[in-house]
Amino acid sequence: MIKKSTIIDNIKTLFYALVIAIIIRSLFVQPFYIPSSSMELNLLVGDRLFVTKYSYGYSKHSFPFSPPIFKNRLFENKPSRGDIIVFKTPSDNRTDYIKRLVGLPGDTIQFVNGDLYINNNQVLKTLINKKDKLYCGNQQIDVSTYEEKLPNNKSYFISYRNDVSFQNSDKYLVPANHYFFLGDNRDCSKDSRFLTEVGYVHKDNLVGKAQMLFFSSNIKEGSIFEFWKWSKVIRFERFFKKLK
């Protein structure tokens, strides 16, 4: 027979462990899973990554279920152009998205003939490969991959479809205290270009900065529980890869 004191001690241990886990997840580091192809080639479906919650300070969205315990951000730090950031979508303030920060408050963003312009200046992009293949949902698409270089010299890879690609837009004027995000897989991303679904993201909706991959599996090749398929399923080369 188990003593009542032993049961109480076990419950206390579980409670303390839960509290510690919530504190770590809310204030320091939270793991996230990549479910979509909107950030390929840089983030693949099946990637697991660490997001630092302290990078930009804290808002209610730093905590589970976004409790309205305070307004604005505490210990606020400004994000940098080019950061990969997890944020809550403005449409419901609940869904986590991960995209790249391109536009800062007060910026004008526009696409002209497939080229990105920030404050009327064309963003440099250099062709890397015309014959890459990426996923868009379950569909594999032919893309051209470029290295894009932002005004602050942050560079990374982006891709555009070879058949039908996003070419032109009106000018987006980023409001005060808001940010403009794009996916790296430009023609397979719901991002700030879609004003009714994502649009401009308020600074309080920022959750944290994506820093490093810690695990990755190709779910299209099978389950990680099928150990005989690990050579195809687990992407060992992506383990502990710092994000760019």
Record the SSE blueprint.
Elements: H1 4-27, E1 29-33, E2 47-52, E3 84-88, E4 96-103, E5 108-112, E6 115-118, E7 121-122, E8 124-136, E9 139-149, E10 155-161, E11 172-173, E12 178-182, E13 201-202, E14 206-216, H2 230-233
Antiparallel strand pairs: 1-2, 2-14, 3-4, 3-14, 4-12, 5-6, 5-11, 6-7, 8-9, 9-10, 12-13
Description:
By secondary structure, this protein is mainly β. The chain has a domain at 4-105 and 177-238: Umud Fragment, subunit A (Ribbon). Helix content is 11%, strand content 35%. A 7-stranded antiparallel β-sheet has the order 1-2-14-3-4-12-13. A 4-stranded antiparallel β-sheet has the order 7-6-5-11, with no helix packed on it. The radius of gyration is 20 Å and the shape is globular. 28% of the residues are buried.
